[in-house]
Amino acid sequence: MWNGTYLLGLTFATILRIATSWILYVTLVKTGDASVVATFTFLVPMLAVVIGTVFLSEPFTKLLFLGIILIVASIYLVNRKQKQPMEQVVVHGEIGA
Question: What's the Cα-to-Cα distance from 88 to each of 52, 55, 63, 96, 97, rounded to whole Å?
Fold first, then answer.
């Protein structure tokens, strides 16, 4: 199990991929809205299901499909633009008067 190929893959995954993903995440948070960037972390389980199904021939069940729909819906709901109110009421005066 602990052969050269395994250690090379483990090193590649831990050092290069994890470091690259964190650098990308921090860069996106600095340049954009942190709450919007953070919502895309919901994509990780969805991508894991898709990759597992396509490349590892894992079964794709109805519950997995439901989970993907819920993930996509949650990303949409968090990132959608809210309607602006028609008028904003501005109150002028002293506090506690």
Answer: 50, 53, 44, 21, 22
* 8 A C-beta contact, residue 46 and residue 69: no
Cβ distance 85 to 60 under 8 Å? no
The answer, as to whether pTM is greater than 0.85, is: no
CA distances 34 to 8, 12, 20, 50, 94, Å, are: 34, 28, 18, 26, 35
Provide the H-helix boundaries in 1-97.
4-11, 18-31, 34-39, 43-56, 62-79
Here the tokens at position 69 are 């729909």
Residues 2-14: pLDDT tens digits?
Answer: 888 888 888 888 8
